[in-house]
Amino acid sequence: MVVGSCELRLLVRGARSLKDKRRAARSIKDRISALFKVAIAEVADQDKLQSLVLGVAAVGNDGRHVVEVLDKVVAKIRDNPYAELIDHRIELYR
Predict the structure, then answer these.
(1) Which of 56, 79, 88, 94 to pair with 8, CA 20 to 30 A apart?
(2) Strand partners, 6
(3) How many domains in the chain?
(4) pTM for this predicted structure
(5) Rounded distance, CA 7 to CA 90, Å?
């Protein structure tokens, strides 16, 4: 079994309140979890207005497949109109 994790740091430029940020985060999380069947959650900077840190987890038998899924998640988030991807990190655990 291989577990892959991805930490994504995003900038939500249009957020004028935490409510705006939460709306953007919910939209991203719902879309990503439905498309890729991964677990996704806000993992840091919950009280920072324009900073959004998401954690994504995927599990599989093959490390290459898990990395492919996480790469697709990163690409989809990169194209997201609600937030700008600043940085990401993918790790595998065997």
Answers:
(1) 94
(2) 56, 90
(3) 1
(4) 0.83
(5) 7
